[in-house]
Amino acid sequence: MTAADILLNNVRLPDGRQGMAIAIEGTRIAAIIPPDGPMPQAGTVHDLGGDLVLPALTDGHMHLDKTLFGLPWMPHRAQPFRMSRIETDQETLPALPLPTAARAGALIHRCVAHGTGHIRTHADITPAFKLSALEGVLAAREAHAHLASIQIVAFPQAGVMRVPGVAALLDDAIRAGADLVGGIDPSEVDRDARGQLDTIFGIAERHGVGIDIHLHEPGELGLYAVQEICARTRALGMQGKVTISHGFCLGGVAESKQKAAAELMAEAGVALASHGAGGATLPPLFALAGAGVRVFCGNDDVRDTWSPYGNGDMLERAAIIGWRVDVRHDTLLEQLFAMCSSVGAEVLGIAGHGIAVGKEASFFTIPAETIGEAIGQHPPRRLVFFRGRLVAQDGTIL
């Protein structure tokens, strides 16, 4: 090629090649050029000085509506119980001096500055909030569409069957612009697993959308929910459109039952999202992936009403997960990176993800030699591109 919009010189690629160049034309990678290749003319040229280029990170599980970013520090108020946190949300969030859209936007900026290009977020749908949280997240998505893609789950945080009117609100949420239907602990929260699952799968089938269900239930109780979710997924032909978030039960049952559940999920095309929760038993992420389950990762709560921790950095999250599951070798760290990037993008339906000619030019540059170093040290991101545009530099949104 003779001309490009943007040219990146002195690039290190994930496969180890050094001194390369990447040409961007429009929203795509137009060429990857070896050190001795002919360089096109370009409107903008960046010398990366040997920095590694990695494809955009995917945050596959987040709660943009709950974040406290954009506000002064607020001490955590809720008791260490889920219902206390739900009740605290209902008291705290409506009284905050910044609306949902502004707080969500502040967190989106943090994520993008760390190299995230794609986000799946949950937005609370409850009788207390009705569609207000969703409306705030929809506004944030529209305002920041030039920085990242954002997929929204209509999330019944307080349950479905135990709270009259939630099912109708979930229907309304999908009509209003939510992309998926959510669910939560059908036995523990609703005490009616069949009722909740039939309801949310029915809504998803009517609207032709996917499902992402929070499943914190432990042991055999959670395993029962996994089996019921997989059965409905197969029966309705929804393979590839259903995600179980957390799935802590998969780490708390016998290895033989883990293996059977992994085979069941792989056959049904049910994915698993994990955030490496510090206080819970983690599912066997690599065993699940080895069985064919699409395993991807997210930050979950980031400095919000549920947790004071987090900064939106998916590489730091990868380091936390890697530390928890005792991942040390580079080959496994590369697989963990895929869970935080390409696998999540695939589950979210993002086409053209990766560092190759013709792929979408959504990537970031980082002073590291390998993916293993990028996760282990997670140094600051220098340049962040989204669909061919430079959107952040040295931690600042442009």
Report on this structure.
The longest helix is centred in the middle third of the chain and has 17 residues, at 219-235. By secondary structure, the chain is an alpha/beta fold. Strand 9, helix 5 (193-207) and strand 10 (210-215) form a beta-alpha-beta unit. It folds into 2 domains: 3-55 and 352-397, Urease, subunit C, domain 1, CATH 2.30.40; 57-347, Metal-dependent hydrolases (TIM Barrel, Alpha-Beta Barrel). 34% of the residues lie in helices and 23% in strands.
Key traits:
single chain, 398 residues, alpha/beta, Urease, subunit C, domain 1, TIM Barrel, 8-stranded parallel β-sheet, 5-stranded antiparallel β-sheet, 12 helices, globular
Give a quick summary of the entry.
This protein is α/β, with parallel strands linked by helices. It has helices at residues 82-92, 100-113, 132-143, 166-176, 193-207, 219-235, 255-268, 285-290, 314-324, 330-339, 342-347, 371-377, and strands at residues 3-11, 20-25, 28-33, 41-47, 52-55, 57-62, 116-124, 149-155, 180-184, 210-215, 242-246, 270-274, 295-297, 363-366, 383-386, 389-393, 396-397. An 8-stranded parallel beta sheet has the order 6-7-8-9-10-11-12-13. It has a 5-stranded antiparallel beta sheet with strand order 5-14-15-16-17, with helices on one face.
- Tally the structural domains: 2
Under CATH, the topology of the largest domain can be stated as TIM Barrel
Class of the largest domain, according to the CATH hierarchy? Alpha Beta
Per DSSP, the total helix count is 12
Could you tell me the radius of gyration in angstroms? 21 Å
Q: What order do the SSEs take from the amino end to the carboxyl end, as H and E?
A: EEEEEEHHEHEHEHEHEHEHEHHHEHEEE
What structural category characterises the helix and strand content?
Answer: alpha/beta
Q: What's the main sheet like? A: 8 strands, parallel
Q: What is the number of E strands? A: 17
Q: Give the CATH architecture of the largest domain.
A: Alpha-Beta Barrel
